[in-house]
Amino acid sequence: MTMDVCLYGSLAQYGGEAAQSFYAQLSPTVPPGTTMRDLLASLGIPLEEKGITFLNAVLTDMPGLHADLDLVLQDGDHIGLFSRTYMWPYQYRFGAKISPELEKALKQRQGGGLHHSYAAGK
Amino acid sequence: MGKILRVNMTDLTAKYEDVPEKYAMWGGRGFTSAVTFNEVLPTCHPLGPLNKLVIAPGWVSGTAAPTSGRTSFGGKSPLTGTIKESNAGGLASQKIARLGLKGIIVEGLPKEPGKWWTLKITKDGATFLPADDIAGKGMYEVCKILGEKHGKVAIIGIGPAGEMKLTNAGICVNDTENTAGRYAGRGGLGAVMGSKGLKAIVIDDTGGPGVPIANKELFDQGRKKMADSSRQHAITKKDGALNAYGTAVLVNILNEAGGFPTRNFTSGRFELAAQISGEAINAGVKERGGEGRVGHPCHPGCIIQCSNIWPKPDGSFHVSVQEYESVWALGADCGIGNLDDTGDLIWLCNDIGLDTIEAGNTIAIAMEGGLLQFGDAAGAKKLLAEVRTGSPLGRIIGNGGAFTARALGVTRVPAVKGQCMPAYEPRAVKGIGIVYATSTMGADHTSGYTIAPELLSVGGKVDPFAVSKADLARAFLATTAFLDASGYCLFNAFHILDIPSGMEGMVESAAGVLGTNWKVEDITKIGMEILKMERAFNEAAGFTKADDRLPDFMTYEKLPPHNTVFDVPEAELDKVYG
């Protein structure tokens, strides 16, 4: 199956021939049953570099939470992967669509996800 | 405690007054809203003799507090008919404050229509200078002429749009390079300034008394906490998200979320978003070099430095600043995906004196109305340039999105209380829709920017998923009103929300200046006092809860890619102030 993947910021370096300096859009072919973790591995992206992530316009991860690694991808899925430096302030995402897995991960955090920064250890 | 400078444009007098008790505790938006609430008839015509233009630095502006150079402008808005506060960076705030001024109140209409004035304020007083040398000119030339004449001064001015009293006219403040890069854009306050025959204000703070600080120890403790907090947070530190990519760091994020309004709010995703993103700005600046710059401060003392200078291909100055709202409004919303085109359009807005958010929305509405095609960058530039000529079409465009939609029979009008929306789609990000609907200013993304500390993680008990959206929105609106009164740039919200000592620092530095005993627990109460004055003004001006609504098309037109409508119940919207 074929994915539609966008890599932003420093992750663009993993985009191979499709990479501009700040952005890459690629269409990798992967076997059925591929998870987010598998996709990252196939692209050579280290987990610690993965930040805000979207699957078909649904927010599935914030920096450092890794809430979406076991999601099984489907043919034609659009995945947007951002490096760790990106932000999405709470005031501009409250009420946005997020995955059940990420919602669960946020609820376990102090403040339940109201914060702006998701750097490790906070 | 400082003085108020009261300027009468009818008899050309300016007098200093002691600050009355009712204004003594206020700065910034608190001051402009308190004066408008107390002194302006809510039902008045915004461009008539009864409206006033109120200008105020924040509590800590002009001190050593970091990132605190915001100037608030207020009055009754000719665009929305509501009370209005719009603030800008640039040089003005610190210089006004250091002259010992708590605020400037401009009143009256000129006896001689068509005669323009420059008000010059120094430590020795205020003088009225004929503005024949700058009348009719764009703001880039105005800054140059006034800079050559008066030296290193702060300049507040209006372009031709303000002179024509168009309701999308903003008020410009010069930046650190003395170009026309900073705008209190929203709500048409440039037209109010124009109605008073005031083309520009020049402020020279040489020899000024400085800002009186009641409790120096508390102030110093607070400002240091603010600076430390700002410097250590991932978003606001050097080479952090804002410093490297500017506010346009949000372009790709909102686009991926399906919440990046495109082609007059008909889609939440723009296929060329990456080409107008903060990353593209950063890459373009590095590639072209020359005068191009990221990590640019819009005022001295800013330690976040989210601004940029976009260079032409040969490296020479093109425009400052390509920021999120502007590249969205004049880019994605018009189907335009090229930074040199958005740069030209932003330059035109800055020069003519228009708010970029409203101008982009207006062009998009004109595109939908058939005046030109989506994506037609050359046509968009021609249309904006038309505003300068004062032609009937130019005047329609210069009056903003809702006015243009009416002229063209367009019904998809993304506005609340007559003010067009910024770059966050309420059908994809529902919380911002509540803020747009219930802000006292019309659709405004800066009204709900940070949140009360009692809702934060104290004890880890708060679950934002369990709090009603109305309660969250109210907390956002009130805390933001406090921040807008402080003079601190709104982007401090990012670090103080995450770092408790930063939030304390904001309150302590303000309390130190004023000599109050405020604690972080007081933020919401003080912010609510500002909102109450604003709500009371709006109610007396005839606004009801029926005005606290999003445009109806958002409740029945499904927005791709999520294919959702705005479905927050009206009862929930009414609970915000309920």
How is this structure best described in words?
- The complex is a heterodimer of chains A (122) and B (578).
- Chain A has 122 residues and is of the alpha+beta class.
- Chain A has a single domain (4-113), classed as Ubiquitin-like (UB roll) (Roll).
- Helix content of chain A is 13%, strand content 17%.
- Chain A has a five-stranded mixed sheet with strand order 2-1-5-3-4.
- In chain A, strand 3 and strand 4 (58-61) form a beta hairpin.
- Chain A is globular.
- The model of chain A has no long low-confidence stretch (mean pLDDT 90).
- By secondary structure, chain B is α+β, with helices and mostly antiparallel strands.
- Among the domains of chain B are: 243-420, Aldehyde Ferredoxin Oxidoreductase Protein, subunit A, domain 2 (Orthogonal Bundle); 430-575, Aldehyde Ferredoxin Oxidoreductase Protein, subunit A, domain 3 (Orthogonal Bundle), CATH 1.10.599.10.
- Chain B contains 23 helices and 17 strands.
- Chain B has helices spanning 21-24, 28-39, 92-98, 139-150, 160-163, 189-195, 216-232, 241-245, 250-256, 278-288, 324-329, 339-352, 356-368, 377-389, 392-398, 401-408, 430-438, 469-486, 492-498, 500-514, 523-540, 553-556, 570-575; strands at 3-8, 13-18, 53-57, 71-76, 83-88, 101-107, 117-122, 125-130, 154-157, 171-173, 182-184, 198-203, 293-296, 307-311, 317-319, 415-416, 419-420.
- Chains A and B meet through helix 2 of A and helix 8, helix 9, helix 10, helix 17 and helix 18 of B.
